[in-house]
């Protein structure tokens, strides 16, 4: 089975109270996730607060993560941006040791046309030997990768192997599943709709809530991969309130609150993100207790 089937987790980046990277906390998180049975990890995606890390800090996190993971599970590096030329240089300089793929979000803020998105990813694909997973998250980027563009990229570049879809657009999903090449991976990037997306044919999820609940989420995804939708529905229903609370005051502040309660790492985030309010924190802790 492809190493990107199943449960992937977009890892948070733990920080000390002074805002410095907490590498002991990151080690704890990695072990927590591997012990929980996840299939692969994503280092420095959106959930990892990559936008607030310096270039040197990102290199340190990537190297440390690869060393600790030590090929025990699959490992993906989140490398995205809206300056294609600069992004290509970052990817060419990236130390691929220990990494199995790159996850790259569509360019944010500049709102390129579909042709611009195509040529952005073309430039990436032509400058790395690693497999590439596209990431469509229009709520953050301001534009969406159309099904036609995704299929075009999948057909034209063999190292573009899949897409993390977080658009919430089921019309797009239907078209993509109908038209994509065989073997191209359709991956949920949106925890609340992982079950229906996998019913359409998604091969798994790259999750936020999995940071806190890797074992429970992995169990549900395994049921879905076995087409046991009745069994998975019961697990899915248990996640509803927990998942809502993870995002009600922004991510990853919500899941970091849960991780702090679980003793994995602290809940510090970097500005412009802030910690959740005390009322939401109390609610998150109460929901987390239900899974402990």
Automatic annotation (TrEMBL):
Its EC number is 4.3.3.7. It is found in: Cytoplasm. Pyruvate binds at residues 47, 206. Keywords: Amino-acid biosynthesis, Cytoplasm, Diaminopimelate biosynthesis, Lyase, Lysine biosynthesis, Schiff base. The active site is at 135 (proton donor/acceptor), 164 (schiff-base intermediate with substrate). Pathway: Amino-acid biosynthesis; L-lysine biosynthesis via DAP pathway; (S)-tetrahydrodipicolinate from L-aspartate: step 3/4. It comes from the Bacteria. InterPro entries: Aldolase_TIM (IPR013785), DapA (IPR005263), DapA-like (IPR002220), Schiff_base-form_aldolases_AS (IPR020625). One of its GO terms (cellular component) is cytosol. GO terms for molecular function: 4-hydroxy-tetrahydrodipicolinate synthase activity. The record marks 46, 109 as: Part of a proton relay during catalysis. Catalyzes the condensation of (S)-aspartate-beta-semialdehyde [(S)-ASA] and pyruvate to 4-hydroxy-tetrahydrodipicolinate (HTPA). Belongs to the DapA family. Homotetramer; dimer of dimers. This is 4-hydroxy-tetrahydrodipicolinate synthase. It comes from Mucilaginibacter pineti.
């Amino acid at each position: 089975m492809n190493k990107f089937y199943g449960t992937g987790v977009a890892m948070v980046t733990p920080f000390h109270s002074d805002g410095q990277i907490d590498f002991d906390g990151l080690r704890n998180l990695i072990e927590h996730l591997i012990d929980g049975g996840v299939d692969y990890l994503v280092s420095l995606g959106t959930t990892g607060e990559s936008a607030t890390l310096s270039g040197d800090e990102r290199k340190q996190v990537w190297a440390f993560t690869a060393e600790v993971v030590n090929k025990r599970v699959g490992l993906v590096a989140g490398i995205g941006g809206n300056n294609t030329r600069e992004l290509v240089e970052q990817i060419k300089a990236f130390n691929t040791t220990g990494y199995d793929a790159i996850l790259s979000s569509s360019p944010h803020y500049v709102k390129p046309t579909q042709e611009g998105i195509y040529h952005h990813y073309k430039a990436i694909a032509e400058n790395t030997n690693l497999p590439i997973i596209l990431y469509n998250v229009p709520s953050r980027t301001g534009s969406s990768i159309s099904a036609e563009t995704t299929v075009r990229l999948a057909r034209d570049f063999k190292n573009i192997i899949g897409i993390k879809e977080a658009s919430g657009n089921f019309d797009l999903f239907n078209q993509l599943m109908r038209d994509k090449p065989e073997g191209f991976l359709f991956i949920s990037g949106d925890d609340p709709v992982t079950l229906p997306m996998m019913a359409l044919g998604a091969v798994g999820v790259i999750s936020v809530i999995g940071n806190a609940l890797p074992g429970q989420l992995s169990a549900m995804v395994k049921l879905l991969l076995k087409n046991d939708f009745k069994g998975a529905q019961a697990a899915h229903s248990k996640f509803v309130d927990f998942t809502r609370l993870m995002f009600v005051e922004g991510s990853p502040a919500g899941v970091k609150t849960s991780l702090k309660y679980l003793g994995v790492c602290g809940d510090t985030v970097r500005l412009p993100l802030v910690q959740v309010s005390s009322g939401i924190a109390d609610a998150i802790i109460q929901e987390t207790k239900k899974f402990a």
